[in-house]
Design goal:
Strand content: 5-15%
Largest sheet: 3 strands, mixed
Order of helices and strands: HHHHHHHHHEEEEEHHH
Structural class: mainly alpha
Number of strands: 5
Distance between the termini: 29 Å
Length: 340
């Protein structure tokens, strides 16, 4: 296949319409997933390192470690030879769709072309598109057909390219330079949030704070501390700034032993920075994050080992409607009056 901008080259296999790992949280069940899987850091210090040397010298353990290292090499090769090549082909496909759409827009036969494309989609694929739908939206639907999420994702990238007046030949390099299709979506969403007072970032911080507060309330790892707590919270209008957490600083002295340095109440402003840092691995999407917090509330409300008062508190909060709606995608309806 060869279109006039040369983006799709002879011999290059087109990528699947729904390439792996393009959407970070695509397919996640919002009603059941557990945020704790995102909250754990890459490395966790275990309570004790006893027995590690014995295991590492075990021939059977070494055998599995060696096999694991070989599998890692295969994974690296797959990333380079398959995934990256698939991404490159995807970017070239998007460039060709973009070029094709722009040429339709500039054609004196634009309305006739789009009418025939809409007719083909309706007659052969049961997909109806409104007559005033722009060419670029129509062509994305025409190429992706029934995959709504993928269509929405591709359209976002091509719309950004159109706003920036890019030529089709430059689009593959542009997408790669900006970190890929998913990254462009994230950056554009962040820019939109910035333009509206960074509301999303504030709400994300609030949800992360709520999540860790819930983890603390439900935790069964409690201890007594009789030392002094250093309060760094600022005075505002005669009142001390509230803190949700007490931050303990300790020195690791070996094994499972730690020695306390200090206990600190930082105040909300400093806590927000700490919350954002320890929650940086949590989802960025507010809908996904809010569902994760809600799922934790469900777990606590059904955990009979928790205090009855806490369980009832969670039930009350679960009765409050969700604040953040799921991200809208291009809807491929069968109605003539269906909106794009």
């Amino acid at each position: 296949m060869q279109l006039t901008n040369g983006a799709i080259k002879v011999g290059v296999q087109p990528p699947p319409m729904n390439p792996t790992a393009v959407e970070e949280y695509e397919g996640v069940d919002l009603n059941t997933f557990d945020l704790s899987a995102f909250a754990k850091p890459a490395k966790v210090r275990t309570a004790s390192a006893a027995g590690t040397d014995v295991l590492s010298n075990n021939p059977e353990v070494q055998k599995f470690l060696t096999e694991g290292a070989e599998l890692f090499k295969l994974g690296e090769r797959y990333e380079v030879e398959i995934v990256q090549r698939g991404h490159n082909a995807l970017y070239e496909l998007l460039a060709s769709i973009y070029d094709f759409s722009m040429r339709i827009e500039n054609s004196s036969f634009k309305e006739k072309i789009l009418t025939e494309i809409r007719k083909d989609l309706k007659d052969n694929h049961s997909i109806t598109i409104k007559s005033n739908t722009p060419a670029i939206n129509t062509m994305v639907k025409y190429m992706v057909r029934s995959d709504k999420v993928t269509a929405s994702r591709y359209l976002k990238v091509l719309t950004v390219a159109q706003k920036e007046n890019l030529v089709a030949a430059d689009l593959p390099a542009y997408i790669a330079r900006r970190g890929g299709v998913s990254q462009i979506q994230d950056v554009e969403s962040a820019a939109l949030a910035k333009g509206t007072g960074d509301k999303n970032n504030k709400e994300r911080t609030s949800l992360i704070r709520e999540y860790y507060e819930l983890v603390g309330k439900a935790s069964k790892m409690d201890f007594d501390f009789d030392g002094d707590v250093c309060v760094y919270a600022e005075e505002k209008e005669g009142k001390t700034e509230e803190s949700s957490f007490c931050v303990f600083v300790a020195v690791h002295v070996g094994g499972s032993k730690f020695k306390m340095v200090s206990a600190n109440e930082l105040g909300k402003a400093y806590e927000d920075n700490l919350v954002k840092f320890i929650g940086k691995t949590l989802p960025n999407d507010l809908t996904v994050l809010e569902h994760g917090v809600r799922n934790l509330k469900k777990q606590i409300s059904m955990d009979k080992s928790q205090p009855e008062s806490l369980r009832k508190e969670m039930q009350v909060q679960l009765a409050i409607p969700l604040k953040h709606k799921q991200v809208e995608v291009i809807d491929m309806d069968t109605s003539d009056d269906a909106p794009l």
